[in-house]
Write a structure and sequence with these properties.
Helix content: 10-25%
Number of helices: 4
Strand order of the largest sheet: 1-5-4-3-2-8-7-6
Mean pLDDT: 75
Structural class: alpha+beta
Number of strands: 8
Order of helices and strands: EEEEEEEHEHHH
Distance between the termini: 103 Å
Largest sheet: 8 strands, antiparallel
Low-confidence stretches: 173-189
Radius of gyration: 37 Å
Length: 201
Amino acid sequence: MLLPNLPVPTEGLHHVEQNTECFINNREMGSGVLYVSAERLCWAKPDGGLSLSLEYPHIAIHAVCRDLSRFPRPHIYVMVDTELFPEDAEESDDSDENADPEARCTSIRFVPTNAGNLDTMYQSIGNCQILHPDPQQESDNEFPEDEDEEEGEYSLGGPLPPVRYENEPYEEQMENGLGDAVGSNGHVADNSEEEAMDEDC
């Protein structure tokens, strides 16, 4: 937002860039000081004139721009998802019939006198933006909970399977879950078979 005599941040400062010109869309705002703080990105004039304060969730893009064909001087380019000058958008809509009326944004350029600090400015803005993730993006990354899934203990009914011990012969194994003896071939012997085996002996 643009406000006159806006108090500049004094805590959580990641970078302060003196002698930085500000351009909003095609408007030259003059020279001021850029404050990159943990809470907001602020640009203010030393004489206490109109100041700019941006909250990080509203910053859609920030980049270092050195393409002199687009702008005559290297700068930090910032795009925000709000209209700082709605009249600029109306003029743009008049020239572009296919413009999306809901896609309102504002282009901002911060041009420091010392272009060697551009990378530091960019990194500082990125570090502060990480501290303010987009709530919508966070909600999209959450996995939906399964309402049908219930916590608790579950028991499996029925007899347990036969247990075989490697160091013992099959004939000496434990009885299976049904109480039947298990032969060496894994076949369950019934009573008639047991009686026949006794007669043969």
